[in-house]
Design brief:
Layout: E1 5-11, E2 14-23, H1 28-41, E3 45-56, H2 58-73, E4 77-83, H3 85-94, H4 118-167, H5 171-184, H6 189-200, H7 207-223
Parallel strand pairs: 2-3, 3-4
Antiparallel strand pairs: 1-2
């Protein structure tokens, strides 16, 4: 297990938060505290450097979504500038990457100078309306993703724990097995996790799922570094 390490440094009117280690349930409270304090101290928001994160689960994503919502309330932003493979997979699977993509809305209106006619004023106002609609749409996506993550996280984390205990895998390896099997069987991750959990209780896994899980376990085990 890799301990969570965070550093915070100023970058103009923003703060850069660099994170390395594992972002799991055990580290969630510390991660939340660091981001909350950084957001409070910043003028325009925080930039996240997550390239050193070796594992990232839904608890960390929930925190980032929550902080993004708080930032918008304060006219600030939370931007992810760099990611590791683990973070990249989670953002891709949940479809939340676009929510953390820009430090400022594109197409900001140029302030209207005194003496411009009403037509110019109306044209300048249009990007603001579009930005508002985009922000409203993003918030609806955020709420839906947050609800889904909260509903499915316990099952996914339990399935990951089952794989870790059954095959002596690390958190990262167990996550890789779940994601690989999910993609190869064209099954939603939370559905696959549910099948695995019920299998432990006595229900049989579908043959295709069992085959791809076994193959994924064999693959990560074959590339695991020697102890």
């Amino acid at each position: 297990m890799y301990a969570l390490v965070t550093t915070v440094r100023p970058d103009g009117d923003r703060l850069v938060v660099k994170v390395s280690g594992e972002l799991d349930l055990d580290a969630s409270e510390r991660f939340r505290r660091v981001l909350r304090e950084a957001l409070s101290r910043s003028v325009r928001g925080i930039d996240l450097d997550l390239e050193g994160v070796s594992f990232c689960d839904c608890s960390a994503l929930n925190i980032m979504l929550y902080l993004r919502h708080r930032a918008l309330e304060q006219s600030k932003t939370v931007v992810i500038h760099s990611t590791s493979a683990a973070v990249d997979r989670l953002l891709t699977l949940t479809g939340t990457r676009p929510l953390f993509g820009s430090a400022a809305p594109d197409g900001d209106a140029v302030p209207t100078a005194q003496g411009q006619d009403a037509q110019d004023t109306a044209q300048d106002a249009e990007p603001d309306e579009e930005a508002f609609e985009d922000a409203h749409h993003d918030l609806r996506i955020e709420v839906a993703q947050l609800r889904r993550a909260m509903q499915t996280r316990p099952t996914i984390d339990l399935a990951r724990g089952i794989l870790m205990a059954s095959f002596s895998l690390s958190s990262e390896e167990a996550w890789s097995v779940l994601v690989t099997a999910s993609q190869n069987t064209n099954t939603k991750l939370h559905s696959l996790a549910g099948d695995l959990v019920t299998a432990v209780k006595g229900n049989a896994l579908p043959d295709e799922v069992q085959e791809h899980l076994s193959a994924a376990v064999a693959r990560v085990s074959s590339v695991a570094p020697e102890q």
